[in-house]
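Support request from a user on the community tier.

User writes: "When I paste my structure tokens into the form, the page sometimes reloads and wipes my input. The last time it worked, I copied everything first. Here is what I submitted, just in case something in the input itself triggers the reload:"
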């Protein structure tokens, strides 16, 4: 979940970055190993168009740092020497040379749909290979969506072929966005994933009577659905948020934060904030992780040996953002028996909160954050960002080198070099 749009930029009035922008239209090449400092090697990189370097060494020590009342991590931060427009003009932000392998020679970011205020493009992004369609859900509980207690958010779908035509310039305007009327409807959909040829949605529930649930949804008309699980030994979950499939046992792992309660459409919680596991053979539900503020996205590495879980606790829905709470990604080892071990802090995101999370085919980690998609290598080093100038709650690969990014009122199509992670 992530419902608030980041509206105000923080502009820092320093100009010490003359050498920051070294973008050229040449191909991306990695220079030889003769460079010394990290900033020097970054500065000498040849960048593709649409990319720019953001060099940590250039702002590690600032003449003055904005006080907490002016910058707390929940607005767009503009590094010194740049403008917000410049951040947007070349939206592939290179923090580490290894990002060039991910974005390739000619990365592209295209807006393929837009709405005025309604956060139609929020989460639950799923690509269905046989039909080459991408499904996603509207923001549930956001005030501008008018959803939550009385009206469920909607599921929508687009064609990837049409997105490609628009991105290539062969077609102008926006993709057609179709509303999907699943039957029975997924109530307040938030997260989703592929599951055995179907889609699996996490519904947050509504009020006291509609319990949060996992729904299996047919990705083809008539979009019929089946509720897989909607309780923990008779207790309602709080507001189910997101789902990951462990590639080694194909068990279903899902997260249950309190956002429905924080957005006034679910009652006070009767379960802690936890990560659950459903064994589809026995239909038994167990708990695999707890001790989070607000658990959110979940993603397994391609080999299934590691799992990443986001904690978006800095965001408590309708309560104010609190930068002193987690905006953190944890990493666990996944044991042979499917349980989680060795929790480690993997990353703390510099902007907003980490929401949806996915791995590419090589095991690099991508998360939707306050200013776009952040990408880390397996050691937790920030490699780069795909800057969307506001919250991008979730996204998904739509085949190798293609990505659909939900950024609330904007839907983006990104073309990069990275290959997609496996689908289950
Ligand atoms: C690298 O960073 C250091 C420390 O900020 C600075 O003194 C040096 O001039 C920088 N080098 C380049 C090539 O930007
Ligand atoms: C939900 O419906 C009730 C009763 O009709 C109404 O009072 C309330 O304002 C509605 N809430 C929202 C968020 O639309
Ligand atoms: C765009 O049009 C060109 C010329 O007809 C064609 O070669 C290309 O495949 C088209 N691309 C897409 C994505 O439709
Ligand atoms: C749930 O029911 C309780 C008890 O009637 C009530 O106080 C609460 O407002 C209800 N919450 C929602 C979100 O419907
Ligand atoms: C949809 O309906 C078909 C035909 O009855 C059935 O085989 C399939 O399992 C249903 N799918 C879901 C997800 O409910
Ligand atoms: C991640 O990047 C850092 C800095 O470039 C590097 O030291 C580390 O080895 C990388 N880790 C992996 C798994 O590639």
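"...and here is what came back when it finally went through:"
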């Amino acid at each position: 979940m992530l419902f608030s749009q980041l509206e105000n930029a923080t502009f820092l009035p320093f100009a010490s970055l003359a050498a920051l922008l070294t973008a050229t239209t040449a191909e991306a090449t990695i220079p030889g190993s003769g460079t010394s400092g990290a900033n020097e090697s970054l500065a000498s990189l040849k960048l593709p168009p649409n990319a720019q370097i953001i060099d940590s060494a250039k702002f590690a020590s600032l003449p003055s740092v904005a006080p907490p009342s002016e910058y707390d991590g929940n607005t767009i931060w503009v590094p010194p020497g740049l403008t917000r427009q410049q951040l947007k003009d070349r939206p592939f932000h290179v923090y580490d040379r290894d990002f060039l392998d991910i974005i390739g020679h000619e990365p592209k970011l295209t807006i393929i749909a837009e709405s005025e205020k309604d956060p139609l493009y929020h989460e639950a992004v799923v690509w269905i290979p046989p039909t080459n369609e991408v499904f996603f859900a509207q923001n549930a509980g956001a005030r501008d969506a008018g959803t939550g207690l009385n009206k469920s958010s909607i599921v929508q779908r687009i064609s990837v072929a049409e997105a490609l035509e628009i991105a290539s310039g062969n077609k102008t305007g926006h993709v057609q966005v179709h509303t999907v009327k699943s039957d029975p409807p997924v109530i307040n959909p938030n997260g989703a994933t592929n599951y055995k040829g179907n889609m699996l949605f996490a519904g947050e529930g509504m009020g006291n009577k509609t319990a949060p649930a996992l729904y299996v949804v047919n990705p083809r008309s008539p979009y019929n659905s089946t509720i897989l699980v909607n309780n923990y030994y008779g207790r309602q979950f709080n507001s189910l948020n997101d789902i990951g499939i462990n590639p080694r046992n194909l068990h279903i792992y899902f997260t249950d934060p309190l956002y429905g309660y924080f957005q006034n459409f679910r009652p006070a919680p009767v379960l802690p904030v936890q990560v659950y596991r459903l064994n589809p053979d026995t239909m038994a539900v167990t708990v695999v992780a707890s001790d989070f503020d607000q658990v959110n996205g979940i993603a397994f590495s391609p080999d299934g040996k590691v799992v990443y879980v986001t904690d978006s606790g800095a965001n408590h829905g309708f309560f104010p953002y609190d930068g002193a709470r987690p905006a953190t990604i944890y990493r666990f080892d996944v044991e042979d028996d499917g349980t989680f071990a060795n929790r480690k802090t993997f990353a703390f995101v510099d902007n907003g909160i980490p929401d949806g999370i996915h791995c590419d085919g090589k095991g690099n980690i991508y998360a939707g954050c306050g200013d776009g998609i952040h990408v880390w290598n397996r050691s937790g080093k920030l490699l780069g960002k795909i800057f969307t100038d506001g919250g991008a709650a979730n996204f998904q690969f739509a085949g190798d080198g293609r990505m659909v990014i939900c950024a609330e009122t904007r839907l983006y199509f990104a073309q990069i070099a990275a290959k997609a992670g496996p689908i289950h």
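Agent notes: The reload is a front-end session timeout and is unrelated to the input. Residues 5-37 have pLDDT under 50 and may be disordered. Residues 160-168 form the longest helix (9 residues). Escalated to web team.
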